[in-house]
Target: Purple acid phosphatase
Amino acid sequence: MPLFQFLLVVVLVLNSLENGSAGITSTYIRTEWPSTDIPLDNQVFEIPKGHNAPQQVHITQGDYDGKAVIISWVTADEPCCSNVKYGLLDNKYEFSAQGIVTNYTFSGYKSGYIHHCLVDGLEYDTKYYYKIGEGDSSREFWFQTPPKIDPDAPYTFGIIGDLGQTYNSLSTLEHYMQSGGQTVLFVGDLSYADRYQHNDVGIRWDSWGRFVEPSAAYQPWIWSAGNHEIEYMPEMGEVLPFKSYLHRFPTPHTASRSTNPLWYAVRRASAHIIVLSSYSSYAKYTPQWRWLREELTRVDRDKTPWLIVLMHAPIYNSNLAHYMEGESMRTVFESWFVRFKVDLIFAGHVHAYERSYRISNIYYNVSSGDQYPVPDKSAPVYITVGDGGNQEGLAGRFWDPQPEYSAFREASYGHSTLEIKNRTHAFYHWNRNDDGKNVPTDSVIFNNQYWGSNPHRRRHLKAGGHAGS
Ligand SMILES: *[C@@H]1O[C@H](CO)[C@@H](O)[C@H](O)[C@H]1NC(C)=O
Ligand SMILES: *[C@@H]1O[C@H](CO)[C@@H](O)[C@H](O)[C@H]1NC(C)=O
Ligand SMILES: *[C@@H]1O[C@H](CO)[C@@H](O)[C@H](O)[C@H]1NC(C)=O
Ligand SMILES: [Fe+2]
Model:
């Protein structure tokens, strides 16, 4: 072919790699279970047998660096007992920790006794067995602590959002449990219990706690809150936002100097994970804004190269559903995300899957400036995983044409996995429920935003005095 034509082809191919012109709108037609909640008498919600038997067992990271867990569970009959026995051997529990018990009411519903127990001072990279409950009703579980904080510590996170408790939710959970994920980054909207009335709201929180136990009792789920956690229901006399969520799902917020459990950070293996609240104030000078400003300065990419942010309402998403609901947070935080070279921002809320290119829109102001998102190598990739499978169904309509910032989008149920390999590389997959576990549908290899693709590059930059630009 003539040289000119050859060059043109090369330029077009390079172009499509560099910016958003090659975005994919997947037309995959998914088979769908009905979007209705699984009936309460189904075995996925089975109540464990025995007087006061612990149920709804779930764990979350309990400190900043992964040497503690918070173990939570509910007992129906008595407030006794909030202690955890634990140790390195099955059936032989050398240690014990004492927790606390709480309870609450919600429009006629009275919760069971909700126990939270901090188990700290753990060794890294160690399997612990634990036992809760008394006598014949006691139950045993285990978890594995993460490797110690290290820039090259490999670790696999699962990312799940908007889960609910339908047959699609069950499919997502089962697929996730086969994925090899070691910790879940949960991007909000847990039970969808707020779709119910009065007594049934609390009952559906309880059923959801039992539903996720097969995963959440054995590995931490890092929680963030969505709009379905707000439960501002004045018509039922309930006006205290996040009442059920805050009673049931504690977070280690004080370890990251946060004053509110709805926003906090944890470090795990080679990742620094920042959890934001889309439904708390974040305007300039508010507590969340001030906390994030401080927390970003505490990120040490030499120790935790992977900087990940979780929130519920996506900042970049081209679905018709909830379009631009993340815009107010974008105007406040996007320039920080770019300046601090955040690697990935995961969100939920929109019931479909979408991944962006690295783009930013930080040059616009009300007087002038570039008003469209532009390719930006320092910007995060934005990923929406609101496709857990709740009873509201899929958000199947996207803006057409696909915006240039959108790399891949599809309205199917599923979850993602992020396999961090070392300081430079992470393998990312979105897994559609309808495929077998080995058929990742959208796969990308991410180079770290701080180290790039070269584990020595940063040091050279530093030696040359150009680091942190
Ligand atoms: C919590 O449990 C105690 C002890 O059973 C009970 O007296 C109290 O009324 C309960 N509180 C709420 C808010 O349900
Ligand atoms: C607004 O944006 C333009 C173009 O980026 C820039 O030159 C100008 O200084 C900005 N104005 C303010 C007040 O930030
Ligand atoms: C990091 O992981 C990638 C992907 O497995 C590999 O190609 C690369 O050689 C690794 N780098 C180092 C320094 O081990
Ligand atoms: Fe939502």
Notes: Residues 421-422, 424-425, 455 surround 2-acetamido-2-deoxy-beta-D-glucopyranose (ligand 3) (CB under 6 Å). The domain at 150-188+262-464 is CATH 3.60.21.10 (Purple Acid Phosphatase; chain A, domain 2). The helical segments are 3-18, 167-177, 199-216, 243-248, 287-298, 327-339, 457-463.
